[in-house]
Amino acid sequence: MTQPEAPAPLLPGLPLYELPKPPGRLAVQSLFAHPAPLELEVGSGKGLFLTSAGVARPAHNILGVEVIKKYAKRGAERIAKAKLPNVAMMKADVRQLWLTLDGLVELAAVHIYFPDPWWKKRHKKRRVFDADFVARVSTVLRDGGELHIATDVEEYFHTMCAEVAPRPEFVRLHEIPSVVGESEYLTNFERKYRIEGRPIYRTAYRLDQSLAIPEPAKPMEAGQ
Ligand SMILES: C[S@@+](CC[C@H](N)C(=O)[O-])C[C@H]1O[C@@H](n2cnc3c(N)ncnc32)[C@H](O)[C@@H]1O
N or C: which end of the chain has fewer CB within 10 A? Predict the structure, then answer.
């Protein structure tokens, strides 16, 4: 297996990074000033959550992953302006990020807020939150780690909950811990939608690996 790599910033002076080329693996704690419990936000957009969470939880490192470079750069500029050594932005597709993190991390939390709904029926397979996403989260979260979800799309909310439901190790939390101050907006999209008066659907889960259904054993290959 290849040694994890510490990537150089994509643009000078900004906490904005790219993944190592496959099959490279990411030395994720090298992106921050100090090693600390790590949280990941998927689809960070312009980075409002990253900066709010970075200020609220200075003893945690917070990594955003954003696939569109323009937004990833805007997010990284916001982090740089706020001078947050515990926050960084990765310009990448989260599906690639999972591969470079495989076996390297135990995340304290995964956040996914207002993922693109892909309204058209034929586009729904592009949604980032699917059964594979939940399976990845269950392997990268530490025991007791949390998955936080918010969206303005009621149908997508129920679909996400239905993707999590077959995995009893995700225990739904009745009280959703406040991630940022009550009066603040969680993300740029939350601000926009709350001002428009749209309802917001949110939930959170805590991982309890003792409740996981064991994976069925793989059949032995001939000659093993
Ligand atoms: C609707 S926006 C929400 C942005 C932000 N979470 C907010 O609430 O303001 C969804 C974001 O997810 C990003 N995104 C979509 N698919 C992604 C993927 N596979 N990996 C990383 N980011 C992704 C999009 O580029 C977009 O910025």
Answer: C
